[in-house]
């Protein structure tokens, strides 16, 4: 199934899983039919008793029991199958979400934090399951039960049916009054969930700082404050929802009372049997119980759409890059009159910068902190857009280039050198199809051979989350090997040795300079003289 279609709504996923939903509908139909039959046999048993028919009473009681047996079987099947469908739907939504997040360029991705995205994949999906899909199932089941009960009421007396119909219309229209407010409160709840995840992730990522400063109580303070706000958002939502529910229940109880009076009146005038009072009570309970359920569920279902709209907004983000495919560099990357400011800021970070990087050259970019070295390299790497002046790849202006194809030509490494949960091999290949020969070649070029040889399980050694069981230098070499596996033409290295000790840093710098057939752009605060002389060109910024 193609999970990458990016129009998010409950209906999209129901249509896609329509076969499974039909099976679920059959289970619900069986369940409601059995429940209704049980009520009818119970009423009939009472009628048989009023007619002194003990045999009929026993038979109807037996049939009542049998109906409950069927009800339980269908109940089990529908509950289990509902979980099976939710699993399939959640897989589809998460896959589509991963697709739209994954196709974003660097700038768009960074408009949200990682914690926000985590909240989309977890909290939001839970809310969609509970308030969306589960409520929709309940609505369907309630509608079935209500329809069956209405038919039974009609079969006893049309007056009962007409009363039911009038109240049904009121109850269906009523929730519209609360729609807008509930949607807003649901949106706030979703946002607050993101904030909670974001705050907790942030403080846990910086935990070592808290530990060494003896400030662990900040963890409690932040968790508690964020938890309280999230809880309050839920309280506000539930308050409005409960108020709406209470009013719906009031209408339901009034309608059932009127129907009880009507059926009593009809039985008193011998228009229906005595046992029918029990059946009418039970059927009106089913109809209005169902309508109450439907009104409540429809309110929750509507409140889920803002979450889907948030996904749809991301899915509809226009690509900012051009459509010209990028071929391997033949001459040079050049820039003239190049200026750049970050979005939402008037402060120019680069002002009329000029220079060129020829194919095969080793170029160092130096300058004081904050002068824009990383910004320039991110522009060259296709991580930032929206420059003024000219920046070209051979003779093509960057604004016309397709950045996905540009990324294939360029390796970008910065000081973060992220290590994924998994083995050393996984961290290098990242699931790309490669041969052992290619992996070993990348390891050799990145100067990682010694580390692999010293690791207990070689390439199968498991690295801990964020590389907590290896050194900064080892992380950088793994990040380098990962990039070299793509055989990039151009390497952009942004302060990759700044977080490692000098000796190790020097070795890594030398590994980079020793690479053949590479155009190297190397950012450094401080170039050691023995390294500096190996560069073909040094560009000074600031
Ligand atoms: N995403 C951003 N939004 C707004 N301003 C930013 C952003 N990223 C960087 N800046 C600002 O741009 C300026 C240049 O940053 P940049 O990282 O390019 O400098 P740098 O020369 O590489 O610095 P360093 O040597 O300290 O790494 C800094 O003042 C920084 O605060």
Automatic annotation (TrEMBL):
PROSITE patterns: ABC_TM1F, ABC_TRANSPORTER_1, ABC_TRANSPORTER_2. It holds the Pfam family ABC_tran. Residues 22-303 form the ABC transmembrane type-1 domain. SUPFAM superfamilies: ABC transporter transmembrane region, P-loop containing nucleoside triphosphate hydrolases. It is found in: Cell membrane. GO terms for molecular function: ATP binding. Keywords: ATP-binding, Membrane, Nucleotide-binding, Transmembrane, Transmembrane helix. Its main location: membrane. The chain crosses the membrane at residues 21-41, 61-77, 159-178. Residues 333-541 form the ABC transporter domain. It is a multi-pass membrane protein. The keyword Ribosomal protein does not apply. This is ABC transporter ATP-binding protein. It comes from Lactobacillus kullabergensis.
